[in-house]
Every structure is written in structure tokens, then in C-alpha cells.
Amino acid sequence: MGEQRINPTNTNVGGWEKSELRGRLNSGDLWALLPTELTAKIKSVNIMTDNKGGNYIAQATATPDKVFILSVTEVWGGESVWSQGYQYELYTAKGVSSSNYGSLTHAGYWWS
After folding, report:
1. Prediction pTM value
2. Over the stretch 72-111, which tens digit does the pLDDT of each residue have?
3. Measuring CA to CA, how many Å separate 6 from each of 11, 41, 78?
């Protein structure tokens, strides 16, 4: 899949809900790359993201998605202005944090 953009302006304007990448992952060309055996088993879940702007969890709204990008908090944990969800157990068990992210990601901008 390689590097993908969130939207044509490479910003988070419109949030995940209106992002180009969300459409491509859930029903577009990237979804079409997945094997039928896998897509038949994928279930939609509601993801809480800031789709209104302001970067506050109080602004979060639910979007139903089958494939999604993890939020900063879901990977690194802790509290941040972008707190959307909780750290996944896998990353907690591996000791991943904003100051110790090891080889699971690289320094740079996070999508949200």
C-alpha cells in the first residue's frame, strides 16, 4: 500500500470522516486490493474521531469503519490534545509511549 495521503491538502481538514483515505480504505481502490476471504470477515466498528475540528475529545463523533488508521492515543497512550480512544493492549504490552516508540513507527507527523 505504501505511503498514502489523508486528503488532497495533506491536512486533517474535515477529519477522518471526510478524508480521502477513509473512502479508499473502506470501499475504494485500497479496499478492492484486499482478498475476498478477508473482506468477507471484516466487521464494521464505530470509531471516535474529531471530525469537527478543535482537537478535543468532546468534539469527537462516531464513524462506522471496517478499516481505519489508529489514533495517536491508540498507539502511544497517555493524554494528549488528540485523545481519541485508549491505547491498544498490544502497544501497552510492548511499552510503546510517545517517548519510547521503538521500531513500531518513525518520527514524523501523525495523520490526526
Report:
1. 0.71
2. 778 887 765 555 677 889 988 888 877 765 544 444 445 4
3. 7, 25, 24
Q: What would the DSSP string read from start to end of the chain?
A: -----SSTTSS-TTTGGG-HHHHHHHTSHHHHTS-HHHHTT---EEEEEE-SSSS-GGGEEEEEESS-PPPHHHHH-S--TT--S---HHHHHTT-BTTB-GGGS-SS----
Containing structural domain, residue 54: 20-94
Q: Report the domain count for the chain.
A: 1
- Decide: 16 and 51 in contact? Cβ < 8 Å: yes
